[in-house]
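Format notes (please read before filing issues)

Several people have asked whether sequences and structure tokens are stored in separate files. They are not. Every record keeps both together, in the order shown below: the sequence lines, then the token lines. Line labels are part of the format and must not be stripped during preprocessing.
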Amino acid sequence: MSCVLNVCDPSHDSRPTSHDSHIKVLIKVKMIRAKEIKESFLHLLFPHVCTGCGSDILERDSQLCLRCLELLPETHFELYPHNPVEKIFWGRLPLVAATAQYYFTKESLLQHLMHQLKYKQNKELGWQAGRMMGYQLLRSERFYNDALIPLPLFPGKEKRRGYNQAMILCEGMSETMHIPVMNNVIIRPHHTETQTRKGRVERWQNIEGKFILKDPSAIRNKHILLVDDVITTGATLESCGAELLKVENVSLSIAAFCFASRG
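Then the structure lines:
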């Protein structure tokens, strides 16, 4: 009987009081402040700044601030058939579609970002760039692909660099496009001289036959998206694409992060 009385007695009300609520709020505030102090300390030791301009005003999961993202010169090629990238391959490769997301110019923000990706081990930037590419391609509704293939580097260069930047882009694209990356379908076993100062014929002679299909059955009857970081003359992509198209019933599209127009 005494137990029943204790339960019903208002003096034994177990509901939280305003004092209890106040204490809980104070605890939460202290926890938030402790977290902010910890993050500020970590930021001093390992500053998270924009890869483009060095600003520390950016999203935690981004390598670029909003200002630098807005400064990137978009091409919007993914939206339009017969765009300048597709015209590069007219008469050279039978493509379903081709695009590059940004215009590349020397001494620009984009050149700085490409340098960070290729030579400064900034994989996070490459993954973000790949995700951005993937979102743009999905929006266009012109790129319905079954798999992504990064343009191969020759083994010595990839070993020195530590990774293939096209592979990093593909990994980011795969996150947003939800299609697999096939990294072992085609290989580039021989080193070729730099293409920078060569004419188109010289470029082709330098790279012709330098790609070898390793697992053609993996792409049979598939629509492949061949990916690179920069398109200039398209000679290397042409050579790789021609080899991929030797596989039965393969269709091919091409995408790059940026386009270095020679016009």
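For reference, the curators noted about this record: Strands lie at 98-103, 147-150, 186-187, 212-213, 223-231, 251-259. The chain has ten helices and six strands.
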